Amino acid sequence: PLAARLTTPPPVVVPSTPTVPLQYHISAPPIPSFARRDPIDLVAIVGSKVSAVIKRLQAIFDRKDQLLDIPHDHRLALQRIGDRLEWILDNIENGSSWTCSQQQNIDWFCKEFGKVKFSGLGQNFERVVKALVELEHFGYLDWIVV
User: Is pTM, for the whole model, over 0.85?
Assistant: First the structure.
């Protein structure tokens, strides 16, 4: 009954003996942190993103007939993009020594490049080229001197 429960004294708290922290009981290796990746992993990720961008850019260069019809400065901008991306891949083994800002700029460039719609490239060639030239003018890769 309720009256019996109200008269029952609270349980006696026994002081606990110090225990060994859980981290010393676990034998499995720690799960990698996604917040802080290993520099080698970051370089590999950058390399795969840059390779994907180069593959898409190659579709522009493969359309030689249309490439000749665009303004010369647009062709130069596309060539600068290609040269800088190739430089990144050629120097990727030094990627862990690049500054955080440089790595972010590469990442941002790849993300922005990925937003350009390449579908119907034949009909939309000039629009795609214009978008890539504008992206080049943002200067994400200007720190790379080829």
Answer: no
